[in-house]
Amino acid sequence: MKNDELTKAWATLTGQLANAAEQVDALSEGHDPTVRAEGYRFLTRILVAMTEFQVEQDADAPSLVQIMSPIRKFFVDNPDTLYHRATLNPALRYRIHGRRGEELYLAFCLYGLRGRTNCILANVCDADMEFDDDGRFELVLSAERPDGVKNWVQLDNIARTLVTRQYFTDLRQKPAELNIELLDDIAPPPAPTVEGITHRLRALSQSLSRTFKSTQLASEAWMKQPNTVSIDSTVEGLDSLFPTPDNEYVGGWYKLVGDEALVMEGRAPECRYWSVQLCSRWLESRDFSNRQIILNHSEVKLEADGSFRIVVTHRDFGEANQLDTAGHREGGVIFRWLLPSSEWSQPEFRVEKL
User: Using one digit for the tens of pLDDT, what is the confidence trace for 165-188?
Assistant: First the structure.
């Protein structure tokens, strides 16, 4: 029993966690000690998340699980977005149904792996869908389009993950009601088997490895040119962070000392939603429950000419549009333009003493 496949899968998982901890130590060397502490916390968070996704969710008994929360974050989560996830089998058919709430944007995005690379397979948002007068809808996911279906997304043969997104300007707004069900008549999932759990542990190991590696590579690319605009939607490898094609992204890495502040100036395009936020070395949003780490278009006070001036600071200088680093000397900053309908240019970054 000690050398069976289940035991080997478990040993691979625990060994991978130990190796990830060593990488956190190495990547944190020379940085503030909080970076290392956050790195270990990050490992616990993605372990919990990927366990739920890879071990507990079942394509034969679909469920929509909330992905992010104030204590579960990765891949530059947006605090203004409510995310849900479902595991899919492209050989099956699914029906999502529900009713719109007060969200200003609702979308459904399919992802899959081409080799070892994550890719976006399809995306449909509310602008592409039909709703009844009460905001009710249904959306079918299947390989072939059924007759009479208004809202449909084709399941590519490598489709494995559905992510739903709801955007808000105020998290007190009512979210949409979302439900998912299987349209095929199949037997309920069987009791756990050695083979089944072995497979899921291996999937968990692979998912943990991809998540950590994608985080490491993306953040290292950002860190190469601090206090400048160094990334945008064209950056190689962005798909590994499960972006939405409805967003344009632009940002960089701040690195500040003393009374320095990062001043970001520019003009947002016409769009459904836009925001700017701070994130950690591990691409987690900063503490949005207790700090001002994000500003969306409803909160930013614009200049008389319609441009913005947003300041990343360690302490309150009495400026409008401040983002609070909570004392973190470095970190990521990212703008999102959702469904931009006009041309846009990159904001300007510069360091000032305030």
Answer: 999 999 899 999 999 999 999 988
Burial of 218 from C-beta contacts in 10 A (0-12 / 13-18 / 19+) = buried
Residue with structure tokens 């905001």?
135
C-alpha–C-alpha distance, residues 224 and 312, integer Å: 19
What is the number of alpha carbons within 13 Å of residue 309 lying toward its C-beta? 10
Q: How far apart are CA 211 and CA 14, in angstroms?
A: 16
- 257-285 pLDDT, tens digit per residue, is 988 999 999 999 999 999 999 999 999 99
User: Over the stretch 196-219, which tens digit does the pLDDT of each residue have?
Assistant: 999 999 999 999 999 999 999 999
Q: Look at residues 195, 191, 184 and name the one whose alpha carbon lies nearest to residue 88.
A: 184
Backbone angles phi, psi at 275, to 5 degrees: -155, 165
What the chain holds in terms of domains, given with CATH numbers, is: 5-182 (2.60.120), 224-353 (2.60.120.600)
Give how far Cα 333 sits from Cα of 129, 163, 255, 286, 305, Å.
32, 23, 11, 10, 24
- Whether the pTM exceeds 0.90: the reply is yes
